[in-house]
Design brief:
CATH class of the largest domain: Mainly Alpha
Number of helices: 6
Distance between the termini: 83 Å
Oligomer: single chain
CATH topology of the largest domain: Serine Threonine Protein Phosphatase 5, Tetratricopeptide repeat
Order of helices and strands: HHHHHH
Number of domains: 2
Radius of gyration: 26 Å
CATH superfamily of the largest domain: Tetratricopeptide repeat domain
Number of strands: 0
């Protein structure tokens, strides 16, 4: 019985150490590092927003206005989250163009005015940093 008790104690101690140990066992990863590895980076999010913007432009050009609004709004949300002002301005401008195509002139003007305000801020920022032009997507946002 004494030997069985030692064996159980050793197993219990090993289990407790594995639960409280911050070091992963060989061949495993900790839950925290795998969660961090799966978190999208700012560049990943920008790539996603750029893809949505391009998709929205294609939908707008194909007169798929509701789909364009959805894609462009998603792109706008991501650009705002990652604080990409140029992308945000592009999404706003193209949302305005979509509302214009839908003959919702009030919304079209609202979005275009927001895009214009951002374009002015982006230009001022570029002028301060010495960049003559910022990278933009679509026509008319320069």
């Amino acid at each position: 019985m004494h030997r069985s008790f030692k064996s159980k104690t050793l197993v219990t101690a090993s289990l407790l150490l594995s639960l409280i140990s911050p070091l992963p066992l060989p061949g495993t990863t900790s839950g925290t590092s795998s969660a961090l590895a799966q978190a999208p980076t700012t560049q990943d999010r920008k790539t996603q927003a750029d893809r949505l913007l391009d998709e929205g432009l294609k939908q707008l050009n194909a007169s798929q206005f509701q789909a364009a609004l959805q894609s462009l709004q998603q792109a706008l949300t991501i650009y705002q989250e990652i604080q990409d002002r140029s992308g945000e301005g592009q999404a706003l401008k193209n949302l305005g163009n979509t509302y214009y195509a839908l003959k919702d002139y009030t919304k079209a003007i609202e979005y275009q005015q927001q895009a214009l305000a951002i374009a002015k801020r982006v230009k001022r920022s570029a002028d301060r940093t010495g960049n003559s032009r910022s990278r933009t997507r679509g026509k008319g946002f320069e």
